[in-house]
Fold:
Amino acid sequence: MTHSSLQGLYAITDPTLLPGKKLIKAVEQALLGGASVIQYRDKTATEVELIRRAEDLASCCRKFQRPLIINDRVDICKRVKASGVHLGQSDNAVHDARNQLGNEAIIGTTCHNSIALAEKANQDGASYVAFGRFFNSHSKQHAHPAELTTLEQATRTILLPKVAIGGINLDNGQSVLAHGADMIAVIHALFAADDIAAKATAFSKLFKH
Structure:
């Protein structure tokens, strides 16, 4: 998976919206609708549940030939042979993950509203950087707000793909793309939909304009 192919809809799972058996069905629908990347994010599951669900998601994503990213857990990523990890801001997280997972892994990191954090992530070997939250968000209510101008600045100085996250929906998605995002990360606006495949298709169409 080259960096240049990191574009499109980046779907992030949520245990409240997708409890138990709903998870795999919903992710399959998102992939059918054209999601480019799936991130498995679950802060509530037990260790056993995390591993089992990550294994199920990994085989589902392999079937569709799309990458599965595991939130925060390098060990689970290795165990289920996922494509990579998404990390928060902790010391040397990207550098350590790169050492453990090798050159092929996709490693992303949250940079909030900071070009400096994105530049450091780039130096440390990240595959993409994520900025946000750009809008009021169901899932990330307490996240720091980010400016569209930061995204624009990042496009000029950082060659890595840029992910925008936080309250993005079909009405405002075009604005983050116009300011330089390569991917839009969506949780609620996708997985709370009645027809997830149709919603994913509609998000994917934003990238064709």
Residues 9 and 88 are 20 Å apart (CA to CA). The chain has nine helices and eight strands. The radius of gyration is 16 Å.
